[in-house]
Amino acid sequence: MAKLKLDLHEIYNKGDQIERELNNIIDEAVEKKIRTVEIIPGKGSGQLKKRVLKFLEQKHIRDKYHRIDKDSKNFGRLFVYFKF
Q: Which of 23, 67, 70, 71 is the most exposed place for a label (fewest CB within 10 A)?
């Protein structure tokens, strides 16, 4: 099963780049019909994870995927699942 992965550790403090990378990975998953995207905002204070979740809840983004799971064993990781 193919999966895409986006690690946000390197760009955690670059807001415009974060949104661009999130848009790119969601679009790539849709284009290539990849069913799972792993996003790693990291643990930290939780602010980056909140920002990622807020981004994913936008209607135009929400319409592209099926569901989100927060990793129960790793607070700093999210999975976005797509149905094709």
A: 67
Tens of pLDDT along 55-83?
Answer: 999 999 999 999 999 988 888 999 999 99
From CA 76, how far away is CA 66, in angstroms rounded?
21
Number of CB atoms found within 10 A of residue 11's CB: 15
Domain range spanning residue 34?
A: 3-81
Q: Is pLDDT above 80 for 1?
A: no
Cα–Cα distance, 30 to 16 (Å, whole number):
21
- Give the mean pLDDT of the chain: 93
State the distance between the two ends of the chain, measured CA to CA, in whole angstroms: 14
Compute the radius of gyration of the chain from its Cα atoms: 12
